[in-house]
Amino acid sequence: DAKTTQPNSMESNEEEPVHLPCNHSTISGTDYIHWYRQLPSQGPEYVIHGLTSNVNNRMASLAIAEDRKSSTLILHRATLRDAAVYYCILRYSGGGADGLTFGKGTHLIIQP
Amino acid sequence: DAGITQSPRHKVTETGTPVTLRCHQTENHRYMYWYRQDPGHGLRLIHYSYGVKDTDKGEVSDGYSVSRSKTEDFLLTLESATSSQTSVYFCAISERTEQFFGPGTRLTVL
């Protein structure tokens, strides 16, 4: 399986944008890039996903490099509630029965 | 929030006893999953289901069995619990792309 590499932790200030990087140099053409986050003492929650084009939703934006070997999750204005572990996951096709392969993710710390 | 519950939420048991964890959904989603999460690891897939009575193994399936007799319920059974199965167990459901996770069950095997 193609793997992802993320920084162990990042720190940001409240109300500032946050850019969370993910490297996936062995990504295949059929792999979608998914992001999930896990708040303390909760199950993971879906954030966003994309294939080639940049994507936006109410939670975040996903910027995908032209060669698809890296991507960046962008939180436009971080709040304390965004403090969580963020996981970048590659998944064959957009959905289906296969489970998610989680790495260790990036622990995002938000300073007030 | 997706209608997904797990029971029990906490359980302490002894080595060698059988344990069954239940995942219940009200969303009528086709796919259901069991993951475990341990310190220093991300979530790891145990088993998944792609329909009633249709299940398959995940990355860490040894020592676990599952059953899905109804769309809404997915049971995870530890036939003879061991201390290495002390973990937090998460159930997830999915219909297409997003997976929705339950609140988790904290299992301690003494």
Proportion of beta-strand residues of chain B: over 45%
Mean pLDDT of chain B: 95
User: Helical percent range of chain B?
Assistant: under 10%
Helix content estimate of chain A: under 10%
Name the chain pair with the biggest interface and residue counts per chain. Answer: A-B, 20 and 27 residues
Order of SSEs of chain A: EEEEEEEEE
The total of beta strands of chain B comes to: 11
What does this structure look like?
By secondary structure, chain A is mainly beta. Chain A has strands at 9-13, 18-23, 31-38, 45-50, 55-56, 61-64, 70-75, 84-92, 106-111. A five-stranded mixed sheet of chain A has the order 1-9-8-3-4, with no helix packed on it. In chain A, strands 2-7-6-5 form a four-stranded antiparallel sheet, with no helix packed on it. In chain A, strand 5 (55-56) and strand 6 form a beta hairpin. Chain A is globular and about 40 Å long. Chain B is mostly beta strands and 110 residues long. Helix content of chain B is 0%, strand content 58%. Chain B has strands spanning 4-7, 10-13, 19-25, 31-37, 43-51, 54-57, 64-70, 73-78, 87-94, 99-101, 105-109. In chain B, strand 9 (87-94) and strand 10 form a beta hairpin. At the A-B interface, strand 4 of A face strand 4, strand 5, strand 9 and strand 10 of B.
List its salient traits.
heterodimer, A: 112 residues, mainly beta, five-stranded mixed beta sheet, four-stranded antiparallel beta sheet, 9 strands, B: 110 residues, seven-stranded mixed beta sheet, 11 strands, 0% helix
What order do the helices and strands come in, and which of them pair?
The complex is a heterodimer of chains A (112) and B (110).
Chain A: E1 9-13, E2 18-23, E3 31-38, E4 45-50, E5 55-56, E6 61-64, E7 70-75, E8 84-92, E9 106-111
Parallel strand pairs in A: 1-9
Antiparallel strand pairs in A: 2-7, 3-4, 3-8, 5-6, 6-7, 8-9
Chain B: E1 4-7, E2 10-13, E3 19-25, E4 31-37, E5 43-51, E6 54-57, E7 64-70, E8 73-78, E9 87-94, E10 99-101, E11 105-109
Parallel strand pairs in B: 2-11
Antiparallel strand pairs in B: 1-3, 3-8, 4-5, 4-9, 5-6, 7-8, 9-10, 9-11
